[in-house]
Design brief:
This protein has 370 residues and is mainly α. The chain is built from 14 helices and three strands. The chain starts with a helix and ends in a 14-residue tail after the last helix.
Length: 370
Amino acid sequence: MSTATQARTSRARATMGGVWLVAALELRLRVRSGKWIAALIAFGSLVGIFTLLLAFAVNGQMFGGDDYGVIFGTVVFFVLFMGLLVSPTLTATSINGDRKDGTLAPLQATTLSATTIVLGKLLAAWLASLAFLTVALPFIVIGAVVSHAPFWTAVVTVLVLAFELLVICAIGMGLSASLAGTAASAVLTYLAVATLAVLTLVFFGLGTALSIQPTTTRIYDVSYDYDWAEGEPSIEDCEWREETWEEPHTEYVWWLLAANPFVIVADAAPAEDDFDRNFYDDQTMLGSIKYAVREARLGPAEFQNWCYYNYGDTEALPEELQRAEELQELSAVWPWGIGFHTLLAAGSVLIAIRRVKVPYGKLISGTRVA
């Protein structure tokens, strides 16, 4: 091994050691706090109570009797929702709070680089958020078991949940380093979370409303001149006709959904590719969201089979089979969302490193150095 290679290896080991050192210091401070243990207990209790009430609701036929498939998806979404509430508190004040208390400067005065300090703090925050996820893990497993979700689906879902918590921690880290006030960084971190989780859906709805335009659709239905006095029509009485009406073209705005963490979790969950026309009834909660997003990518269908819904047609039309094939050929949405969130997290970390690096180029107004 050359001298240069040995030097790079030594620096890498030193950096990793520094990251673990900073993370250990952060975690040790958290563990010493009694509030940390109380928060974990409260989090687990909330998830447990929610899971129990949900099971009773399903058993009480609120969701259709024995339809236990809704439990896994609902519990996963509840855990993600709670994680999005908790994670910002772990990093939104981690840098400007230490700077305000005068505990950041001693770290900066050591041989630890800004990258090591930021990554160490981020690792500690992520591990802390994973502790909350670990507390909720038994209830996710229970939901998967009663919903008959495949083992691989549960594993992938938990991994994506862990990644989303890391993204939120990184965003909070970047804002904490960029702003002097802890209150401002906390508020903006929650605003960023709300933008990803809620406002993307709001903007998608607004974009859908703005995309409405006249669309010609082929309708398979009973003819207008059918004599209803002869009784209930049958499939043989159905025929094609064209109608023009206002329809939203979601294929122009579907990409807004790709940034939503709930859509990412649902789309990433492996599911059987059952693309018949009844997939909304046959799929689980996460699977229904997955295919609804794919429907949004295709936009409005060029046909509608009203005879099937009104008169019980048992055979799929060639147009329906073609639509199903188009759905099946669409690529997944979650890689786009994961890629965007990765860039968002990486950018936040780079901003934090730049703000922590010494000597300072230009201090933020109101910043305390030591």
